[in-house]
Amino acid sequence: MNDPLRIARVRLTHTLPYFAPMVMAMRLVESEKIPFRMAVDSHGRCYWHPRKCAGVPVDELAGLLLHECSHLLRQHHARAREAGINQPGPKLFRWNVAADFEINDDQKALPLPPDCIHPRDLGLPTGQLAEWYLRHLPKPPSSEGSAPGGKVPTGGSAADGVPRDYELPADSETAPGLSPLEQQMLAQEVARGIRAQGNAPAGWRRWADAVLAPPIVPWWRELRAHFRRVVGQAAGRTDYTWNRLPRRDPVDASILSPAMFRPTVPVAVIIDTSGSMDDGLGAKCLSELRGLLRALALPIDVIACDAAAVVSRRVLSPRRAVLLGGGGTDLRIAIQAAQRLRPTPAVIVTMADGHTPWPEQPPRGTSHITLLLGDGKPPGWGRTIRVSQP
Hints:
- Helix content is 37%, strand content 13%.
- By secondary structure, it is an alpha/beta fold.
- The protein folds into 2 domains: 3-212, no CATH class; 219-236 and 264-386, von Willebrand factor, type A domain (Rossmann fold), CATH 3.40.50.410.
- The strands form 3 sheets. The protein has a 6-stranded mixed sheet, sandwiched between helices. Strands 1-3-2 form a 3-stranded mixed sheet.
- Helix 1 (3-15) packs across helix 4.
- The two termini are 38 Å apart.
């Protein structure tokens, strides 16, 4: 019964040989429990429905195999978690649509069945990441069962990280999956093949460049170390307080007694929401903001800025921040807004692509960290950490 899939796999590796390492490593699992023709889990097992795949042309089956392989290579399950998607619901469905858009607009060498979704179904541009499509999807699709033109996105947990009922346990002995390390090594091998071939779609060439050219330094460790250092310095500025003792204190309440106190460290995060940040960099900003919030365990003031600044005070979750924008950028306005906050931030973190005018002088009385998520210019002052695109 595996013959159709095996033939499709041979067709795929013959047409696009650079995908062969991952395609051949995926274990084919026949299942009539799957509601689609084909789906892949986050452990690299490809489930296929024998009756629903019957009669599908070999080229289209090969196209579906490539689609499922692409979910693994592009790490959609890990990126879904970064986007805050971890359970079934409307947002999960919308992420699946966005992930399929990211894959299908690059798939040209092998056809997909006509009911597969594509960005043109909604009049959206091609060449974007799933995070971009997620932000720009109209409503609907907002709930399960509604997708462009009545089409339905396919995919197992490799698409979003949420296990399906038909998927085997992670430690299955009958169909062992691929470990994260194995998937990483296979992805690097595919990326090397794409570079050597030279005629892959532009989206896959960008992906290969990112996989094979990691940052020279682990920027996230650099950010964590520098951020903790400046926050620690601010938090360590302890001083004496000469408040009167409480009335019920056994010592005479009229006596002034020195005591130490540790001030709260106010932090402001500026996020560039201009149009030039619409290629997935904004999603990375949110991911890093989430990490900072978890590390600090205290509210942060968030300032979203393109040509104007929108302030969200005391944000405990990045989902509560108001991120409006899409036009040009002038982060001087945002830095001025941050300095007007009370209390004045001890640390300002600016996340931007650098295509903006910067103030000539650094903000007074505060430490400034720039996360540069693009090819623009950093300010001539403060600490700049360059972030590579995934």
